[in-house]
Design brief:
Oligomer: single chain
Helix content: 40-55%
Largest sheet: 6 strands, parallel
């Protein structure tokens, strides 16, 4: 897929990927078992995409409105160091992690899907969303993935960033022989 040069320019600067959870790392459904435990479904390719991105030198963070032990567990699997839960106002954790990593807003990519994500989407250098996002989010996003949230959308963005930065062959060569 050919990317417009203006998007490639945005992705060249990215040093941090920030992810929403529900609707981005998951398909947005929240399932409870018979004991009331929350279940979330994650796509394994998204996790590997985050791993590849880290190999390319790009950190990851999670900012989500809900608190969930499942998110904490999955973030540990991804080796995500920066996890912010219970965040209705996502600007504060965005500013916090950016400051901790000494990054400017144009060095950050955020993937979100709902109204509470818009303030961060408007601030970052590369704002991405998913086809199942609310229309207001898709309107402010620089890029809307082909794949749905929880179904490889994060992997799609990770791959685009790695390729735009010219690191694809370097990062994947150990897996592809």
């Amino acid at each position: 897929m050919m990317m417009p040069p203006r998007l490639i320019e945005k992705m060249l600067k990215i040093k941090l990927l920030i992810l929403d959870v529900d609707g981005i790392l998951t398909d947005g459904r929240i399932v409870y078992d018979s004991r009331g435990h929350q279940l979330k479904f994650f796509d394994v390719q998204d996790g590997f995409g985050i791993h590849l991105l880290r190999m390319a030198g790009v950190e990851s963070a999670i900012i989500t409105a809900k608190r969930s032990k499942v998110v904490t567990r999955r973030a540990k699997d991804f080796k995500v160091k920066y996890i912010y839960q219970d965040c209705i106002n996502k600007i504060k954790p965005f500013e916090n992690v950016s400051k901790r990593l000494n990054l400017q807003p144009d060095e950050v990519c955020f993937i979100g899907d709902d109204l509470i994500d818009i303030p961060v989407l408007k601030r970052v250098g590369f704002a991405a969303s998913v086809p199942n996002a609310v229309d207001e989010v898709k309107e402010v996003a620089h890029y809307v993935t082909r794949r749905e949230g929880g179904r490889g959308a994060v992997r799609e963005v990770c791959d685009l960033i790695i390729k735009a930065q010219g690191k694809w062959d370097q990062v994947t060569s150990r897996f592809t022989g």
